[in-house]
Amino acid sequence: MKSNVMIFGGGGYNAVQVYFSLKNSVRFHPIMAGSYDNHATYISKDAIIDLPFTKDENFIEKLNECVQAHNIKFIIPTHDSAALTLMENQERIKATVVCSCLETTRMCRYKSLTYKALEGADFLPTIYTYNAPEFPLFAKDDVGQGGRNARLVRTKDELEKLKSDPVEYVLCEYLPGKEVTIDCFTDRHGVLRFTQPRYRERLMNGITARTSNAEMTEELLHIVTEISRRIKFRGYWFVQCKADSDGKFKLMEISTRFAGTFDLSKSLDVNLPLLALCDFSEMEVDFTPNKYKISLDKTYIDRYKIDYPYGRVYLDFDDTLVFGRSKYNTEAMRFVYQCLNKGISIVLITKHEYDIHETMKKIRLSENIFDEIVEVPLDRKKYEFMDVTIPSIFIDNAYAERKAVKEHLGIPTFDVSNFDCLIDWSEE
Questions:
Q1: In this structure, which topology does domain 3-99 adopt according to CATH?
Q2: Hey, is 137 helix, strand or coil?
Q3: Which of 85-99, 127-141, 196-210, 284-298 is most confident?
Q4: How far apart are the first and last CA of the chain?
Q5: How far apart (Å, rounded) are the C-alpha atoms in residues 179 and 176?
Q6: pLDDT surpassing 70 at residue 105
Q7: Taking the CB of the first residue and of the last residue of the chain, which one, N or C, has fewer CB atoms within 10 A?
Q8: Under DSSP, is residue 297 helix (H, G, I), strand (E, B) or coil?
Q9: Which UniProt keywords apply (predicted)?
């Protein structure tokens, strides 16, 4: 039986990406949840839209009623303030909040506390007081996100005006260089398991609209390693840095929620929400990232370009192309027909325990769609039956099969959650 997962803050962009990361999981069932009718109802049939706001006195009481009514086991917060409220009340909440501990979540919610915790680190920006400024400087809301209330301050008069502003500002040196976000994952043993930098290439209202993955440099690795050494994390977290006038990266902020474009890592075969849930389920996690270059351009939906031309697709059947021997994976079928349009060879490779031909007949799936149907014995590995003399990819919901293919054949592999990154939106 699947464990129900509440995605709290449902309908926002981050929440939507978490939802689709888990939609096809065989272990977890995502449920969008929030306080008003928004985008969640368009993508989730069982969306919850009547929760109180987190500042309401009866929030925890109503949240627990919802948790019990929907048999919620885990809650994933998708907003910094929501994460802090949930962790402050974790002992009262009848579900596990998938987030770093309260001390870390509070520390990361306030930039002033973050900088204090990392005092002395060589990657901290210079912090000014109102009495000792150096212009230009950058004023940031201590609890802001997405560039909210942030502003460049060029003169003493502009700085004086900030004193009457109700916002609590942190005054930092101005960082004119490029900005980088580093997705990180720390397991329940405290081991930093994953770090993936990505650069901002286009902004929209202070939020990343286009990004691409990048190689981890010694400088960036030093930053995340030192942060991980000083601050206790669990699950997903991210770091944002910006280069100063000399090109040296300085810390902007750290967060324990999912960043707006974290799903770029998912398309490298690292499903961070799924890994976090497995870790909080006391499971040992493993992953083997793909190595290709990928970029993401954000509008209302995500669109991808993968720099890996392929002529053959090896496609799993159970829980990938078809669910429960009766229900099509429509995302997979869309991709299948895209391949047919492009003249890409499709090989169905399966360990189906029944007669695959009878099953296909039963669900009215034509065998003519596939160039070949390969039936693999249960005691054998699928990579043993694959020919990659032409560029190929492999799609399977089983991590062990994907890992073996990647290690023995060196071709990209994709989880069942990754069909979206394989869709060519430019195709007419």
A1: Rossmann fold (3.40.50)
A2: strand
A3: 85-99
A4: 40
A5: 9
A6: yes
A7: C
A8: strand
A9: ATP-binding, Nucleotide-binding
